[in-house]
Amino acid sequence: MKIVVCVSLVPDSTTKVKIGASGKSIDETGVSFIINPYDEFAVEEAVQLKEKSGGEVIAVSVGTDRSKEAIKKAFQMGADKGILLKSGDADFDSFSVAKNLAETIKELNPDVILFGKQSIDFDGSVVASMTAELLGLPCVNVVTKLELSGNEAIAEREIEGGKEVVKTSLPAVFGAQKGLNNPRYPNLKSIMASKSKPIEEKPFEAKSMTELTGMSLPDSKSSGKIFTDGVQNVPELVRLLREEAKVI
Amino acid sequence: MNKILIVAETKDNIFKSNAFEAVTTGKHMAELLGTGYDVITVTDAPDEHLKTLGKYGASKVFHISLTELNSKSPASGIKYSHSAIASAVSNFANSEGYEIIIISGTAFGKEIAPAISVKTDSAVITDCTRYTVTEGKISMKRPSYAGKCNTNVNYTSGKIVITLRPNVFKAEVSETDSEIVNISPDNLNISAADFKTCVTDVVVSSGKLDVAEADIIVSGGRGLRNPESFKLVEDLAEVLGAATGASRAVVDAGWRPHGEQVGQTGKTVSPSLYVACGISGAIQHLAGMSSSKFIVAINKDKDAPIFQVADYGIVGDVFEILPALTEEIKKIKG
After folding, report:
1. What is the ipTM of this complex?
2. Which residues form the domain of B237?
3. What are the domain boundaries of chain A?
């Protein structure tokens, strides 16, 4: 079985966002970058599929050289090969990513393609589905359970207040949600082994349909009414919620 | 010709409130652009229910029967197919020449919007919380980094698919008599190949309100000390008719299911009231809930970052305050 897993590098979730000088991106000073947390579930699922049915896992990322870190993390977890679609520093949108990924994945002709359900930077949640559509393949996103048998797949997908059971056929694209599995911690042996795994570089061509024109921080809140002496303030809190905020 | 097409979603053949939000938003956008708007829905809801869209200003509703659409599926026993619905909406939009498609960003909307954008050669902008129209061009505002910042996005293609963040845009009553136009899937060029994904079952979590849909959320964190103490959070949630939420720390510790996690790697929520109990307020948690209308924080540490985003707060023992709060609210709710 050939499995492609698409990974991206994002600012750590503990990042305090400041707007950069261009006004169109965040200030990266002091920001540490990690593999997108949802992509870890995708990588883990890919590696488990390989362990079960044999084959190989190819990790694909889009970005500058820095994005190799996301591929290397996938290597440490058990991916075999990497491809970096190497972009310049110029902006590009989700459609550009999907279009370039689709072209690369088409050549690879995999059985299963895994993504994280969304990246935690732009939160677009569209790249997996758009890539699938460009390839003419089925896509199920926000997957919390995946079972493959032969050419068929049954996925459970999280929805408001429950889940959907979705049947599809392979090859197919799946977007991983937290809960799909427990991503492994790489051990020393796998970290050492990852160092010799190859990353192929391919060109990336921006084909954007949207343009980011500016970024801003949310309006800051005026300070609230904080009572500092414990449980005796409960009746007053309830009164405020009822009469001032009018929310209960 | 009308440029805007609004997709209205039903659940169990009843329109979701988010469908009305989408209709009102489409109507306003049409007014600003000097164009018209139509609504499309794929459902088995009866005509009299379809006409409720008229209450929010939908004068023309194109209706595709879900049963008829499903009859084109090669498999039997399917509930619905996201891929087939995306094909039906896209084929209709392409044949009628719509330029703007508006969909509420629910689980359903998020699943079909990217496919529709590709099928209609449109750009897609998801999770919009505001829009402006300048010289006939729409520009969208959407949160990024789980709400730590906002981005303004334009589109450079001629056409656009927009998803709206649920519960942000208001549904406004504007009584209109709706004309219902039934469209047969036969005329939409739907074939077995469009049924790439098929939902065979929908499982509802036992009577629990989801944080993504709740108007009030009571969340608990490490300050609760053990999983058993979440009973206090659940009790308060019950008297408030609220959903139960959780911080990442307690989800990762296995105390609560991941579906309850609020924050950058969980759900981003904006309820009317968010009550944070024993949650210190890590950056990634604040990102997921600071757009709530009112925030109440209960924490023993007066310097906890959660107090910086709170509208109301009590510094004190969560084990004392929670039961007292539950009792007090019970009293007033009588």
Report:
1. 0.95
2. 216-333
3. 2-203
